[in-house]
Design goal:
By secondary structure, this protein is mainly α. The chain contains 13 helices and no strands.
């Protein structure tokens, strides 16, 4: 079986044009863009905070900074219980927001995929229909996040234990070097978790949608049926998708600049770049469809100027 990483490109481009411009419907763009926005919440961005000193350092104001540090430290020690409480509240709020985003995104990934498969713009009906699949995906990511956090905390703790004697001695020696070497292991660990998330988003989610099954059976099918003998094709797909997403990011930035920063606003930016989102989702789906008719997800879209054509629908429950 020949699996190509370039053939799905043309198919994804064609479907993006058909869905977004065949014919153009502004209302459809806003509804479909909303599902795409929810499906990509938390991807490739965030808020960057910086602290500015107004062009002066603390030393320029108070000499060596001792006079300014001492009152601050005294205030911290005096109000330490309240600072701890505030920190805990902020941490809980951040965790709650993160979980909400992950839950919404897990459900919306199936909504967006269903809209592309059926060439529709719907939110309410697929939101209810794919509740079990969305919850299964959310639970998977929750467990994966907890495992990742535990691994990172364990690694950081081990690094601290190894380096502690040199830290106390204020000496850069063998233990400090060993701690740095251990720290380098954090990179492949992070890449491993990122690879699991990438496989899930690109291939396991479509399998869940196609089979109407929860995530563990879908992962089992991907691991035992699709992956063996095709690792090279998946690696090539990953590399090409990486390049494509850089290009998509550049185009998105250019569109944001051309539209006087309107294209940088949440949700509106997704509506503006909707064809790119349709293409990106369609690329992995068409790649998956090369493994056989039983992996076909997208219906054929009828040509409004010609006879109606149809394709196989996704497997029903």
């Amino acid at each position: 079986m020949s699996v190509s990483v370039t053939v799905p490109l043309g198919q994804a481009i064609t479907r993006a044009k058909q869905i977004t411009f065949g014919p153009f419907d502004l209302g459809k763009w806003f509804v479909l863009g909303f599902s795409a926005w929810l499906a990509t919440l938390g991807e490739g961005g965030g808020f960057n905070f910086s602290y500015q000193t107004g062009g002066q350092s603390s030393d320029s104001v108070t000499g060596d900074g001792t006079d300014s540090v001492q009152p601050v430290w005294q205030w911290i020690t005096t109000h330490l219980p309240w600072i701890i409480i505030l920190g805990v509240v902020i941490a809980i709020a951040m965790i709650a927001v993160g979980l909400l985003i992950a839950w919404l995104r897990s459900r919306a990934m199936f909504i967006f995929l269903d809209n592309l498969a059926e060439n529709q713009a719907a939110i309410v009906a697929p939101w209810k229909q794919f509740k079990p699949l969305g919850n299964s995906l959310f639970l998977f990511y929750l467990i994966l996040g907890i495992i990742a956090l535990a691994c990172y905390v364990a690694m950081l703790g081990l690094i601290l234990i190894v380096a502690l004697p040199d830290i106390r001695a204020e000496h850069f020696g063998g233990r400090a070097i060993a701690a740095i070497m251990l720290g380098l292991l954090l990179l492949p660990l992070g890449l491993a978790f990122a690879l699991i998330a990438w496989c899930t988003n690109n291939f396991v989610v479509p399998l869940m949608y196609l089979r109407r099954q929860k995530i563990l059976p879908a992962w089992r099918e991907f691991r035992t049926v699709l992956l063996p003998g095709n690792v090279g094709a998946f690696v090539l797909f990953l590399l090409l998708q990486f390049v494509l997403r850089i290009a998509i990011g550049i185009i998105s930035v250019l569109l944001g600049c051309i539209t006087c920063c309107i294209g940088f606003l949440p949700y509106l930016s997704t509506v503006l770049t909707l064809p790119l989102h349709v293409f990106d989702r369609g690329y992995s789906v068409y790649f998956l469809e090369q493994f056989g008719q039983e992996y076909r997800i997208f219906r054929a879209i009828a040509d409004p100027t010609g006879p109606t054509s149809s394709g196989p629908a996704p497997l029903s429950q």
